[in-house]
Structure prediction request, 386 residues.
Amino acid sequence: MTSAPRISVIVPTCNRPSFLMHALESIRRQTFTDYEIIVVDDGDNDVTHRLLEPSCGERFLYLHTNRRGLAAARNIGMQAARGHFFAFLDDDDQWLPGKLSAQIAVLERCPEVALVHCGYRIVNDNDKPIKEVRAEARKWAYQQLLAWNSIAASSVILRSEAARTSGGFDEQLSGCADWDLWLRIARDHPIEYCDEILTLYRIHGNNMHKNIAGMERETFLILEKHAMHLAREQYTSLRATHAVRLARDYYRVGNRAACLRLLTDALLEDPTCSLLMHELSVEEQEHLIGDALSTLRSAIHDTQQHRTYQRAAAKQYHLLAWVYYHQNRMADFRRCLRNVFQYRFPHIPFRLLVPYLKSFFGKRVSDALHTLRTRLTNKHAGFRFL
Prediction:
């Protein structure tokens, strides 16, 4: 047996032989060549086995599982791997030729780093570019990754020891199992980022991320797993943030009921969170927010919940007001601010009054008010407007 390879490339696959062959070809085009390939077939299609059998050898391993899921397939690949580093490539994704070289260089330069990821280009079935993602999660990135999983599995290379000591992929999860592992690694180790587009991430009808209900269940399960490491306020804020993100996904596919359910949950978790969806027109946003607030109001049963509703309504109309203000739609701006005044009087931030008066009287009056505020603040130590 030859010496162990530097990198074990783990490729889970399930009944997608045509995509798989393109993925494997992208590995063979790498400028870094000290690797082994481990294909873990979790499907029931004999075509994959027939295509790969001629390639099997010491540096190309083919394993077959029995529909155990993506997380289990990756774990089986790691158990069989001999490399010092693990790289993952989903069967419908591809790498650009310098991917492994660039990331190995970072790991060799920074021995304290456990994981390196890179930018990726989202493409469709025909490899047509959709957009590029450059999310610089680096160093001690645990808190950043809790808010958003910016790391695509196919963009990652990590130290084998870190993967194993972190417990591998949770096999109770599917679409979010990678995020869960990155969080466990990032909690204990620094990570790094290659600011290059080195991975092609394919979006198509069979992606796991199309299963929004499954993503919802797993997202909140993962947050619950990490709750012990978070302050109560941070935990509720994160739940609200992810509820709004998932609500957007439901809205895009036309499931308005699920969207409103999650927006209402977000307001209950954190009344000051933002429900704005900037990809929609401001009229659509206001209509959706109004429906979410109505749903919240109908669920009110006590005084404390009524205060929650008031805070939530004031915050959302405050945010909408600024959107209208920056579009120079002053009548709508004033209408939204009247709602803020209604729900939060007398706790009105002074900074809202200046643009409110400006919308009536113009810039000259608002500048005079701003000057007055500055003079009062400077004259009286500790004096602050709300």
Observations:
- The first strand starts at residue 7 and ends at 13.
- The two ends are 73 Å apart (CA to CA).
